[in-house]
Specification:
With 165 residues, the chain is an alpha/beta fold. 28% of the residues lie in helices and 28% in strands. The longest helix is centred in the first third of the chain and has 16 residues. The protein starts with 11 loop residues before the first strand and ends in a 7-residue tail after the last strand.
Length: 165
């Protein structure tokens, strides 16, 4: 997998909601080479695969500094551990950086009881995770809702099959 150049307007956010169980995934394109994936709700196998696809799409576009904000995850099911390990391998293969933002159970329990704590940088919040992947925060007066990134246009909401809502 070789990263290309970031294409399209920056910064941008895409949001994918899976209404059946309350899961949502927001993919944020930040400064050149940076992506943030924000997952909320329960994460089972299908949701873990959606997270993985979104991150790998960003890596193919040259966004190799990756922050996974999992602080809003409410339940962890099968597939998340494997997805995180594959994302780590994909980021490592392109000399990228990966950090997780984890603020408590259930993801903190997954990190504590698996090899994740040794293989991936873990932070308690998104701002610290961004610093771990090499993103410096702008001056305080220019800070946005997405720590360290300029303000973004409203997110595009899409259904699972990619159609706009």
């Amino acid at each position: 997998m070789k990263p290309g150049r970031d294409e399209g307007p920056q910064p941008r956010a895409d949001s994918i909601d899976l209404p059946s169980d309350g899961f949502s995934l927001e993919l944020v394109v930040g400064s050149p080479g940076v992506q943030i994936a924000v997952a909320r709700g329960p994460v089972s196998l299908a949701e873990a695969q959606e997270l993985e696809r979104g991150v790998f799409d960003g890596i193919r576009r040259g966004r190799t500094r990756v922050v996974l904000d999992l602080s809003g995850v409410t339940a962890v099911g099968p597939g998340l551990l494997g997805a995180l390990l594959r994302i780590r391998r994909g980021v490592t293969n392109v000399d990228g950086r990966l950090a997780l933002a984890v603020s408590g159970p259930p993801v903190s329990e997954l990190v504590a009881t698996t090899v994740l704590r040794v293989l991936i940088d873990i932070a308690e919040d998104r701002g610290t995770a961004l610093a771990l992947v090499g993103v410096r925060s702008p001056p305080t007066d220019r800070r946005s809702a997405v720590d360290g990134l300029p303000p973004m246009p409203t997110a595009t909401r899409r259904t699972v099959d990619g159609r706009p809502r």
